[in-house]
Amino acid sequence: MDQRERRALEDEHRPEAIRRRLGAPQRAETVPDAILGGIDGCVTTFAVVSGAFGAGFSATVALVLGFANLLADGFSMAVSNYESIQARREHIQGVRERENHHIDAVPEGEREEIREIFRRKGLSGETLEQVVAAITEDREVWIETMLTEEHGLQSEGLSPLRSALTTFVAFLVVGAMPLLPYTLASLGTNRQFLASLAMAGAMFLGIGMLKSVVYRQPMVRSGLRTLLMGGAAAGLAFLTGHLAQAWFGVAP
């Protein structure tokens, strides 16, 4: 670690910086939703393109099937993401209400749970009792501590609508890329597929590299891993289309 990085790290850990960072409201995390939507959108449409090309269908069929799947699957994925996060929020609220009821019904038992939680963290004696007293003095702090420490639940940063919209937009934007070459009638079928292949590969590689920047992972390895996963899905679709034509008499 060089001197510049060390100074920046020290500045981030000054008391006022820590208070400001921890006191700021936690925002909903949209990057995972965008990455998930983008990868799934690109896989979905390029799998359709690969399957159509493998079966020998025309560019028009590939384009129609691709856009139909793009809209339908994008909407379905956005709704699924919305329902999943909404269900998590409702579960957390249910646990919160249950803990609130337990504090009213068996306060000493709930204090003992707090005591045991922090005893397992290595506290004991007078220090442990002071921590228990400080936490149980504030009901909201008490409940939040039970949520995070006993149940492992985090209530902040969950936004069903934002997650759903982020997923849907990323799905549409990235998923449309492999379909663009099929809108160019001047290209032959083989060139359309190769251009779509190159576009999809660029999308997979770009998403993987973007993910590495956000989460501070090795850029090349992350990009290649995403490219290989997307390529595997497209290869399966191509093989399925080709075998369907050969085995079941599917004709273009």
Summarize the topology.
Blueprint: H1 3-12, H2 15-23, H3 31-55, H4 59-105, H5 107-119, H6 125-137, H7 139-150, H8 160-176, H9 189-215, H10 219-248
Describe the structure.
The protein has helices at 3-12, 15-23, 31-55, 59-105, 107-119, 125-137, 139-150, 160-176, 189-215, 219-248. The longest helix has 47 residues, at 59-105. The protein has one domain (31-246). By secondary structure, the protein is mainly alpha-helical. The model has no long low-confidence stretch (mean pLDDT 84). 81% of the residues lie in helices and 0% in strands. The N and C termini lie far apart (61 Å).
User: Fraction of residues in helices?
Assistant: over 70%
How many helices does DSSP assign? 10
Sheet with the most strands, sense and barrel status: none
Q: Which spans have pLDDT < 50 for at least 5 consecutive residues?
A: none
Task: Provide the residue-averaged pLDDT.
Answer: 84
Structural domain tally: 1
Subcellular location: Endomembrane system
Transmembrane segments: 164-187, 193-214, 226-248
Keywords: Membrane, Transmembrane, Transmembrane helix
Region (Disordered): 1-25
What is the gist of this entry?
With 252 residues, the protein is mainly alpha-helical. It has helices at residues 3-12, 15-23, 31-55, 59-105, 107-119, 125-137, 139-150, 160-176, 189-215, 219-248. It has one domain.
